[in-house]
Specification:
alpha+beta; OB fold (Dihydrolipoamide Acetyltransferase, E2P); transmembrane helix; cell membrane; transmembrane; ComEC/Rec2-related protein; Competence_DNA_uptake
């Protein structure tokens, strides 16, 4: 079989998805024994038995034991940080593997931790804290009490690199051309998005170019090509060995996000195959890498970044294989088209918006990234302390930002999409079939583009009046939508709600709140009208009253809402 890892990855993924709902518990010894049994057979029978073993392996690794704890009761936890912290407006969230706890059932398991106002927490830091466990979306989240958390980096071998990264970011902020270039540059170079505000990110979302400020395989590929050019004076073997040393360190400096680790891992596999004269196949490398990811972290399969990264690279690899006899510039344009077509369903499903400009804007906006990322390596080596070198790099960051703003000014940004899982599956299967079927190149492009148009039509959201209720520990958040008009009753901000408003095609947005001070200026800028009220408010054809539970009246219909996640169709009886 030419692509064995394709079948094995699909098998493992199906098992993980199935067990997300069934949560079956199979001992790891069972798939190991079946793998050993497969060696008894030959040919097709061996491969079938091996696939059975992989399916059982997927069931085994994705089982989640749910600890029974008294929620909100004080607990002691000592754990090792197992992911790079994501910084929010008032704290950070990261995964942590528990090594000691007052609740023995937590030991050996990994949980998300939300720490407020804490610094010096890095990947592989050891932390100890007193706090509480809370349930969110069926999972436990550990929440340390402020001032009752201790961080220990004495055994963290990555600490010097991570501290150096932090100093580089600080120096970059001092030497950047402007705060805007620093915001975008920090995301491009360090994978650091905490400095990006909504206003800076907005043009990237409106042009479908947000993937360019999230370090991914394309950035690693650009860096690989640029460094290969710079190191031309070395022999091929020495050049590859040097790249093999640089890329992992660069991955650490950029935050070890899923797309970065995947891209670095694939690059290292490519380098190894070249150094040892091994045959390599891009599709097999992609699916093998994805298999390893899901094996070690089954939850990564449900990560938006993993899905977008995997589908984009899958589309690009297929494109270069199918259109391999075209000129390089033609392959770049066509690969941009198919990367967009393959990631389209994921973007619509999670974010509800689409911009066709991404197809032709991506290769144009990527041009300044070549000198930008190349010079960034020199700045990393000098700790971003040489002002003129930082400003030269930032000049290309400025060009990059202006290109994005130009495409944003075209106004080709559409919201109001919400495709079903089945529609997504049919679309991706059909798109893959069109690419691999024996058609001429023009037919492949025409059919694929038309398929995307049909998919967009069938993905349009039902914009009939709805009431969304979001459960909250204090008081529920209520969102009323009606044919592109959206009314949000809330006392705190949430990106999740903004995504739902995109899915509902909200062109007219109203925020009604008792606590305007709880919202950032960036969040407030998303709304056309902001209304303050106390206890109750009447606005247009809506009346809202805060009682034990919220009461919403829409055109004479009264809805008594509960503090739980639900969606109500207003026109249903």
């Amino acid at each position: 079989m030419i692509y064995p890892w394709v079948v094995l990855f699909i098998n493992l993924s199906l098992a993980v998805v199935l067990n997300k709902y069934l949560n079956l518990n199979i001992s790891i010894l069972v798939p190991i024994l079946v793998i050993i049994l497969s060696f008894v057979f030959n040919g097709v029978i061996r491969f079938l038995v091996l696939n059975l073993a992989i399916f059982l392996l997927g069931i085994s690794i994705s089982y989640k034991e749910k600890p029974v704890l008294q929620i909100n009761q004080p607990i002691f936890v000592e754990c090792v940080v197992s992911s790079f912290p994501d910084y929010l407006g008032f704290g950070s969230i990261f995964n942590c593997k528990v090594i000691n706890s007052s609740e023995k059932q937590l030991i050996g398991k990994t949980f998300p931790v939300f720490a407020k106002y804490e610094e010096n927490i890095y990947f592989l830091s050891r932390i100890a804290f007193l706090g509480k466990a809370k349930e969110k979306d069926g999972n436990l989240v550990l929440m340390p009490t402020r001032y009752f958390l201790k961080v220990d980096n004495s055994d963290n071998f990555l600490y010097p690199i991570l501290k150096y990264r932090e100093n580089c970011i600080s120096n970059y902020g001092q030497n950047a051309i402007s705060y805007e270039t620093f915001q975008v540059g920090s995301a491009l170079i360090f994978g650091e998005k905490r400095y990006l505000d909504l206003q800076t990110k907005k043009p990237f979302y409106q042009t479908g170019l947000a993937h360019l400020i999230a370090i991914s395989g394309s950035h690693i590929a650009i860096l690989f090509l640029s460094l290969s050019f710079i190191l031309f004076f070395l022999s091929e073997r020495k050049r590859l060995m040097t790249l093999g040393l640089i890329l992992p360190v660069y991955g650490v400096l950029t935050g070890l996000g899923i797309p970065v680790v995947r891209a670095v891992f694939m690059s290292l596999l490519y380098i190894i195959s070249k150094l040892f004269y091994l045959k390599n196949n891009s599709l097999n490398i992609l699916f093998f890498t994805s298999f390893i990811f899901v094996f070690f972290s089954p939850e990564s399969l449900f990560s938006v970044s993993f899905q977008l990264s995997f589908l984009a690279v899958f589309g690009i690899i297929l494109t270069f294989e199918v259109f391999k006899d075209l000129e390089n510039w033609q392959k770049v344009l066509i690969s941009s088209l198919f990367a967009t077509l393959f990631t389209l369903p994921v973007i619509l499903y999670y974010f509800g918006n689409f911009s066709p400009t991404t197809i032709f804007a991506t290769p144009i906006a990527s041009l300044p990234l070549y000198p930008l990322l190349t010079i960034s390596v020199l700045n990393l080596l000098t700790g971003f302390e040489i002002s003129f070198l930082v400003k030269i790099m930032d000049f290309f960051t400025l060009i990059f930002i202006q290109i994005v703003k130009f495409f944003s000014s075209l106004g080709l940004y559409f919201t109001g999409f919400s495709p079903s899982i089945w529609l997504i599956f049919i679309y991706l299967a059909t798109l893959t079939f069109i690419l691999i079927y024996n058609l001429n190149k023009t037919q492949k492009i025409a059919l694929s583009t038309n398929l995307a148009v049909v998919f967009l039509i069938f993905s349009k959201s039902d914009l009939s009046p709805k009431i969304y209720v979001f459960e909250n520990k204090v008081y529920p958040v209520v969102l009323f939508t009606d044919n592109g008009k959206c009314y949000l009753f809330a006392d705190f901000e949430s990106k999740k709600i903004l995504n739902i408003m995109n899915k509902e095609g909200c062109e007219y947005k109203v925020l009604l709140t008792e606590k305007r001070e709880k919202f950032s200026d960036e969040f407030l800028s998303e709304f056309d009208i902001i209304k303050d009220f106390t206890y109750q408010i009447s606005f247009e054809n809506i009346h809202y009253k805060k009682w034990i539970n919220p009461i919403l009246t829409v055109e004479g219909k009264v809805f008594e809402l509960k503090n739980q996640d639900l969606v109500i169709m207003v026109n249903d009886d």
